[in-house]
Amino acid sequence: MAMKIALVTTSVQLGGAAIASGRLAEALRARGEQVEVFSLDGKRRERTLPFIAERAKIFLANGLNRNNLFKVSTASDGQRGLVDRIKAYGPDIIVLGWINQGMLSLNQIQQLGEGGTPIVWMMHDMWNLTGICHHSLGCMHFVGECGRCPMLSKSVRGENDLSHKVWLRKRRLYQSVKIQFVSVSNWLAELSRRSKLLEQNPPVVIPNVFPMDDFFIGEKELGLIVFGAARLDDPIKGLHHGVNALNRLRDVAEAHVVFFGELRNPGALSGLKIPYDYAGSLEQAEVARLMSRAEVILSSSLYETLPTTLIEGQASGAMPVSFDRGGQRDIIEHHRTGYLAPFGDEEALARGIRWALESDISPENLRAEVDRKFSAGAVAKRMIELFETLKKGQLC
Predict the structure, then answer these.
(1) In the chain, which end has fewer C-beta atoms inside a 10 angstrom radius, N or C?
(2) Neighbouring C-beta atoms of residue 284, cutoff 10 Å
């Protein structure tokens, strides 16, 4: 008999975590499960008030400072009536995706948990194990109790600042409601085990679903390196590291790069000394065509939970090259299915690109590795096995 699954997520359209939630819903349906998605897609009016209310509270708590206003979340506000709608659906399992920015509050999650329905919470970033930030940027306060948060203005930082207050609310929630956390990467799971909030309830690791059918191996273009992101010059993407590494390939005659994604600073690529093109923002079908021609997919991100562009490239037969920091290790086996350079070592990253361009590892083998780890069938099978365990009243 099919399980009734309620999947709660701010969106299934906007952002990597949102798209991952949509793909998970499709994968579970393909396995015969009944999935109802509760999201804010197409509901601009419903989204606006809780979103503004949460941001206003953050703005006030941060001393009327707008810095980092959209880099933190508190889950103080959620959609009116959402808990009742979820309960009326009568789910066997509740799956929480990325629920911030006015979708679901911590209090509402408490209410959902009081009904006894098993809750699975997908972790797409660090927010579940910190006070308010989605990425700690090297701050390690989460191994104890958050406070003195570097995301907040210096004038309001303290032992009991906003980050500490939200940290305490999360601790109360986690202690009173049974939640099965699921990390999409081993890197994030390891951080969770080190955190004070989740050390007693560490997540299991199940990756995001990847749409194998959307990507394919095409005729490879000699020396083509692809570098892509939703926003190329987002500081997290470490574009300057990529440019510096690529400039060490000036003696590789055939090396050329195609960049894609939003670029707010047009001068960010001006220092590149090898041939390149900037393709702008691309639709997924355009990304697939570009990846199919590439020999190398490059990332120089400061950290990534589970970098989708590397998986897209590998599924298209391109060799992934990246810094070894974050979920990249779940994708790349060094010198077998890609190259992992020590974090921040631009010379090593350049060596990795050279190695990838010269490698005789077949595109078909690279694609097969993605299929084994991240295909819809493989991920859905693991999720359903987890759901069955939870229905028996057990946490993993």
Answers:
(1) N
(2) 12
* Domain 212-374 grouped into CATH 3.40.50.2000: yes
CB 366 within 8 A of CB 11: no
Radius of gyration, CA atoms only, the chain: 21
Residues in the chain: 396
Residue 310, pLDDT score: 96
* Tokens read off for 70: 């959209």
Tell the residue number behind the tokens 């490059």, with chain if given: 298
Query: How far is CA 355 from each of CA 152, 228, 293, rounded to the nearest angstrom?
Result: 43, 20, 18
Tens-place pLDDT, residues 88-133? 999 999 999 999 999 999 999 999 999 899 999 999 999 999 999 9
Q: Give domain limits for the chain.
A: 4-209+375-391, 212-374
As beta bridge partners, residue 133 has: 72
CA distance 149 to 160: 10
Q: Which residues pair with 338 in a beta bridge?
A: 334
Same fold, 4-209+375-391 and 212-374: yes
- As beta bridge partners, residue 94 has 6, 119
3-state secondary structure of 307: coil
- Distance, in Å, from the CA atom of 250 to the CA atom of 156, rounded to the nearest integer, reads 49
- What is the rounded distance in angstroms from the CA atom of residue 160 to the CA atom of residue 140? 17
The one-letter amino acid at 203: P
Measure Cα distances from 43 to 48, 79, 299 in Å.
Answer: 9, 11, 35
